[in-house]
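User: Modeling request: complex.
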Amino acid sequence: MIDSLALAIVAPLLGAVVVTLFPRHAQRLGVAAAVVSAAAALAITAVVWTDGVLRSELGGWGVPLAITLQADGLSAALLGMASLVALSVSVYAGGYFSSPQDGERLADDSRSRHFWPLWLLLWSALNGLFLAGDLFNLYVTLELLGLSAAALGALTGSREAVEANLRYLLVGLLGSLFYLLGVALIYTAYGVLDIGLLAEVIAPGPVAATAMALMFGGLLLKAALFPMHFWLPPAHANAPAPVSAVLSALVVKAAFYLVLRLWLDLYGPITPLGAANLLGLLGAAAVLWGSWRALRAERLKLLAAYSTVAQMGYLFIGFPLIAATAAGPARDNLIAAIVLLALTHGFAKAGFFLAAGMVQKTAGHDRIDNLGGAAQGLPAAAFTIGLAGVALIGLPPSGTFIAKWILLEQSLILGLWWWVLVMMIGTLLAVGYVFRVLSRAFNREPTPYRFVNDARAEIPALLLGALSALVLGLAAQPLWTLLGQGVIG
Amino acid sequence: MTRFVSLVLLPLGLAAIGVVLIWTFYLAATGEAGARLADLALARVPETGVSNPVTSVLLNYRAYDTLLELAVLLAALLGIWSLGPAAPGFQRGGEILQGMVDWFVPLLILAAGYMLWVGAYAPGGAFQAGALLGSAGVMLALAGYPSAGLPSERLLRLLSILGILAFCLVGLVLMVLGLGFLTYPPELAKWLILLIETGATLAIGVTLAAAYLGGRPDHTSEVDAP
Amino acid sequence: MISTQLFYGGGGILLLLLGLWSFLVHAPLLRKLIALNVMGAGVFHILVATAYRGLDTPPDPVPHALVLTGIVVAVSATALALAFGQRLDRDDDR
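Assistant: Request completed. Predicted assembly structure:
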């Protein structure tokens, strides 16, 4: 009996162990571990798609005692996206850390040594988080995620990076403590930690409401929802490019996933509309503020980081719409739409950051005003930014387009026109900040000789961009099938 | 103004939160909703291979939590190493301190071994034992041993992953045998738990000591173990 | 029994709030870290209070195990944050 759920967590974990043991071969072993880990996780997505929800009670003790792992459509969708992004980042990182950077050849080798074990630990935390069915186990995965992410973000070694990631670490710890307090309250009241069992016994009332406020408060801090986003832009903008990609595409998304999971499984039915409206309001503020700051950003990576703040906002605008819609196809479509939005943003932002990393490496800086001619020097990077831009704006045929369409349609049906307004303004601002980059990148330099110069860096980025702008939009139907496994329908 | 916020407004807000928390804690503790885990957990302790209920939870019912927690420790250590080399060590202590340390370190190691063994049926276990080992390292570092008694980098790396390795290998072997990940057969449970706990104790001990040094091992000063 | 639980649980909540206040008000890293650890101690207190089931009944082992796990996590996080601080201090000295 092979427990594929446990395997998806153990594979990167063992990879981290092996890489720690043999730091000299970190790169080769790391890429190998990445391939195995991605295969293990993608296998789960495939099995959930064809056979339905997977469940495993570790230790053979049965639910109240054992920790359960569970993969339903929602877990499988995020797991699949995370594996593809993580695999691309791993391939990219292989080249990124081994080529000289800013003239310091020696420091690079040690960076690669430190990157791989921490990165594989982060990956196993992500897989663990997407698969966990136990509230306390989720706390441990959150801490593993937070610690490894902060350490990875500081790998550039610059003062800004260390300071920003120390702040990120502290904020993350504060968030985890609030979450843990909520779990303690739940355990005091109900005596169980398993989410499935809890869903059967949880009842509306002050205890559930306080626990929800504490857990959601902690998670929103980690998801960088406005106004708790202050730590994100410096931390994401100063990390090494592959790490920025992971932080923006996956790590904040993990906190969002958990909010959505708790909402759908536990709190949705017992929460008043006001709480959902508050989430939506903060999301709207995030869309406006994040997009505005992205438009004004002077550096490419800072722009991408503020754009993450904005894109996280759209995800939270989904909550008041879900809460206001009666169960049925319309509500299912809304849930699928925000998952689609999260997946598309994951691919797009990862591709964007990888491309930004190439620009920064080649040009020696990432100031947007001085990007002249970057498109000619790095056609693949510029094209990736264009593809990711299509997804960030929400132009057809990206997944964002379909998702926003569904959100807009449902807001209009419900008569909640203000959400429409926010999404429209956010989209316009996104057009502004994406075209600001593209207009600087293209000027009248001679046409390039080759399209792809550094295949190892450019192909992963291009693939991520293409996934976000073309594949997810044109082939969104499978997501509905996947979510049909235990989440919607 | 900020003084007003931090000394008046913030405490008032926190006091209000405190009232809500105490009220909900009271409601939670007095309400009787659902079956508590406690009775079930205690009733099945005899099947877990150890008789200390807390060890049953940590190493058997919820062993997977403990595995991830060892991963957290490893992440912290690797993060510390990534931030730079260790600070220069302390000055070598005087004769009285040296003599005391020479006495205490073996005692601590002995006590760690006892803690590890006793954890099966009384309070104790891998974490307490690892903490004692770690404190032996801290003591050595304070007495002026720059490497805190830790071995060479290669061995240090091996020791620091030993807990995770033991956990994963036991888990995977049991899975391949058809029992399920980390599902111990009852007759072997005691020994498998002891095996994992031994690995975990060593990993926790060296990780805590290495974390105390606060940086990656320095290649220049390796031969000063006591 | 409930009064004992409330006494310890309330103590935990008090610790949590004191820690939170200090975390929000004080800027230095060391004070923030101590504050976080006091908050952590508060949460662990609450969990231990939850485990108490009167003098005649053995306590619930599950929260005890959760607290042990939580302590190790807190130690790890504190150590990493201190290393960050040490790195910043070293950069200042240069």
